[in-house]
């Protein structure tokens, strides 16, 4: 039998090294890997830009030391920078357990012959469920009522017609973006009795649940009692929902954002809430994170805030570990990666066979 392949498990306090190890051993014979470990500090320490990559954890020096002689690395947050690549010539596969490998320099990885993989859809169900929770909480002003009861209030006047909220059944919900999260949420909302509109220039209507209607954005905004954002943040979608778009929404409607903060003008949203044009909002992402003390949304009424936690479930961590472990197993067997972020590197890769 061939010698075990050196592999680094560079987990953190969410995608744990023990989850990576368990997932790895479920996909290959135990003797196939010589596993080493590096624990990164996220989320106990916020991720940050490291050299030329974003949203990374740990340090280049620690990763370089841990990668000596290593051919495969499984991680969520480790910084794959040009300096790391230049210092770790044995590395062949860098498997990132997140939907976008922003912590990896893909151009440099390709130049060094390193395949980078990622884990699309790992948190789609979790994010869709969190969105639904925020949506319901905002629509019924659950947070406001909760704090009132804690303060000793029993506000039966909230049964007054003008103070009551909305329900999903029988109302129209507009989803801006119909990827893995949006399409899953659409199916749930249809099952709950909502009319569901979708705006997504790239969606194939045939892939959507029956009854979901694809519409232009202005029409979606004008017709929806609830609007939920699920688009990717690109130069084209940055600032997609501003004051003009919020003004198109019906009076008394609700906005939810569990996608990316850059999609939304939060100053305009705060104004729409203060003026009473919008009934409420539910937010998990922001234009600035962590949310500054002076941020205008903090003082806006009827807003439910969570700190970018839509993907924070044990199920997501386990699925993320399983997805990168699968990439390692595929590499071991000489198979194509399931989700390659730099496919150009595969064009120059020699044909391989299972080293075991």
Walkthrough of the structure:
The chain is an alpha/beta fold. The chain has two domains: 5-122 and 313-347, Rossmann fold (3-Layer(aba) Sandwich); 124-305, 3-Layer(aba) Sandwich (Rossmann fold). The protein contains twelve helices and 14 strands. Strands 10-9-8-11-12-13-14 form a seven-stranded parallel sheet, sandwiched between helices. It has a five-stranded parallel sheet with strand order 2-1-5-6-7. The chain has a two-stranded antiparallel ribbon with strand order 3-4. A hairpin with a 2-residue loop joins strand 3 (48-50) and strand 4. The model is unreliable at 351-356 (pLDDT under 50).
Summary, kept brief:
The protein is an alpha/beta fold and 356 residues long. It contains twelve helices and 14 strands. Strand 12, helix 10 and strand 13 form a beta-alpha-beta unit.
List the helices and strands and how they pair.
Elements lengths: L4 E6 L6 H11 L5 E5 L10 E3 L2 E4 L3 H7 L5 E4 L6 H6 L5 E4 L9 H6 L3 E3 L6 H16 L2 H9 L21 E5 L3 H12 L3 E5 L13 E2 L2 H7 L2 E4 L13 H6 L4 E5 L8 H9 L3 E6 L19 E3 L8 H19 L11 H4 L9
Parallel strand pairs: 1-2, 1-5, 5-6, 6-7, 8-9, 8-11, 9-10, 11-12, 12-13, 13-14
Antiparallel strand pairs: 3-4
Helix pairs in contact: 1-11, 5-7
